[in-house]
Amino acid sequence: MPRVLGVLGGMGPAATVAFLARVQALTPAEADQDHVRVVMDMNPQVPDRNKTPDLAEAVLGEMALRLKTAGAEILAMPCNTAHAQAAGIRAAGLPFIDMIAETTAAVVAAGAQRVGVLATPGGEALYARALGDAGVEVVLLQGEDRAAFMALVYGVKRGEVGAGARAEMARLAGALIAAGAEGLVAGCTEVPLLLSPADTPAPLTDSAEVLARVCVERCA
């Protein structure tokens, strides 16, 4: 039987909307009734995961409980960084789809041995650990490129997704390839709003796409 998907959203809003569009597009459906039923808490007021992780964990736990009360049977969160606070979500007692673990499995299946990760500092730490445990070497942005990446992420939250921002994200992806990355991970859900597989010569694993596919597999 199909399961009701509960989505912890709003981190950020544009990335959440794009994720839901992926779920819809990936669902094999002939009619409305074939699509995934979703209950969502679109909460942009979740405290900054990079600055106040303890506060974020408490709010995420409250969101998970609200979704459970609303009828959710399985949970997903299209924000990589906030997976560091996933303990608060799991405390609600529902299955939680781990975006980091699923993306890592996709990278391993693709066969790349050295992967560049485009992510926030928190996301970098999560992927460095998960990919390293899986035997994959991780390449990260260095120096001023790290600050440039975060500026792009916060720019997306302000609606800045134009040609200049897209070119800068492609430049950062190129820097990782130049440093030896054989593949790339869009380890922040804002990244695919600026970077598509056609923008880079290396294979791009989109964590939001991976999560959407798993949600469809488990809920449709």
In short:
The protein has helices at residues 13-26, 53-69, 86-90, 99-110, 121-133, 144-157, 163-178, 207-219; strands at 5-9, 38-42, 74-76, 114-118, 137-139, 183-186, 204-206. It is an alpha/beta fold. The chain has 2 domains: 5-99 and 210-219, Rossmann fold, CATH 3.40.50; 104-207, 3-Layer(aba) Sandwich (Rossmann fold), CATH 3.40.50.1860.
Describe this structure in words.
It contains 8 helices and 7 strands, in the order E-H-E-H-E-H-H-E-H-E-H-H-E-E-H. With about 220 residues, it is α/β, with parallel strands linked by helices. It has 2 domains: about 5-100 and about 210-220, 3-Layer(aba) Sandwich (Rossmann fold); about 105-205, Rossmann fold (3-Layer(aba) Sandwich), CATH 3.40.50. Strands 5-4-6-7 form a 4-stranded parallel β-sheet, sandwiched between helices. Strands 2-1-3 form a 3-stranded parallel β-sheet, with helices on both faces. Helix 4 (about 100-110) packs across helix 5 and helix 6 (about 145-155) packs antiparallel against helix 7 (about 165-180). The chain is globular and about 45 Å long. The termini are close together. The mean pLDDT is about 95.
Task: Summarize the SSE layout with pairings.
Elements: E1 5-9, H1 13-26, E2 38-42, H2 53-69, E3 74-76, H3 86-90, H4 99-110, E4 114-118, H5 121-133, E5 137-139, H6 144-157, H7 163-178, E6 183-186, E7 204-206, H8 207-219
Parallel strand pairs: 1-2, 1-3, 4-5, 4-6, 6-7
Helix pairs in contact: 1-8, 4-5, 4-8, 6-7
